[in-house]
Amino acid sequence: MGWVAVLVVLSVAILLIAFRVLRRKGRDDDGHGSSSIDFSANLALAVYLLVLAYAAVLCRDGLWATETDVQAEAESLTEMYWSVAPIPEAAPVRTQIRQYTAQSIDLDWPLMAGSEMSPLPGQTLADMRASVLRLQPIGDASKNLQQDALDRISEISHARTVRGDDASTGLESIFVISMILSGMLVIALPWTLRVRPTFPSIVADLVRVGVVVIGVCFIILISHPFSGPGAVGPDAFKAAQRQYDQIDGQFPAQP
């Protein structure tokens, strides 16, 4: 959000300075050289729109992939809860699963917008693995459930690593730089004619600046999967918490 505010303020400042300079030192429009400048501006606009479209597709695919990863982690948590629910002595493991889920929601998500994660859920996950290993199931059925729970822990651990990678990644800076440079050409090339601004030219300038600034701001806002208007939220984890309650209704925890 900070980059967006800086970009908007900077664009407005440049626009005002350009209007002031051209008003004082510009000349009347005589049409000389306008065709070549228009061609260059249209070429820069085509490059800008191409980079903008490609960046938007990358951001969209990144958001979808991150959401899929989060749903997979929540599903592994739910399946692990199902695995340990029939084991009478696994009540502490249930508590740790709930604790990990709540910590991920309350601690991880606020930090992931800044590309960080809390260490506490990771420690809870390690304690959870130790608790499952300490179980002493009786019978083949319970042993199979214990092994399944261990497999689910491995899935959760991998999913948490992937979620951390998703939180620390974003759109490559080359795309933002390309958009800004091509957008600046779209805005500034018509001003190289040094024509004194008129009402129609001012409207055209405002439209060009608006298109460039809105496009760059939009990409910046959706470039990180855990921040901005399209951020991936912990809805899948909250759904898992509701699943835990339903499982407890079928397999009440025993102290």
Q: What gap, in angstroms, lies between the N and C termini?
A: 49 Å
**Helix content range of the residues, please?**
over 70%
- Mean pLDDT, to the nearest integer, reads 81
Strand content: under 5%
Largest sheet descriptor: none
> How many individual β-strands?
0
Any idea what the radius of gyration is? 28 Å
Low-confidence stretches: 26-33
- Approximate shape: rod-shaped
Secondary-structure element pattern, one letter each: HHHHHHHH
Q: Number of DSSP helices?
A: 8
Structural class call reads mainly alpha
Write the layout of secondary structure elements.
Layout (H helix, E strand, L loop, with lengths): L1 H24 L8 H51 L6 H22 L6 H15 L6 H29 L4 H16 L10 H24 L12 H16 L5
What would your notes on this structure say?
- The structure is a single chain.
- Helices cover 77% and strands 0% of the residues.
- With 255 residues, the chain is mostly helical.
- The longest helix has 51 residues, at 34-84.
- Mean pLDDT is 81; it is low at 26-33.
Which key phrases capture this entry?
single chain; 255 residues; mainly alpha
Characterize this entry briefly.
The chain has helices at residues 2-25, 34-84, 91-112, 119-133, 140-168, 173-188, 199-222, 235-250. It is mostly helical.
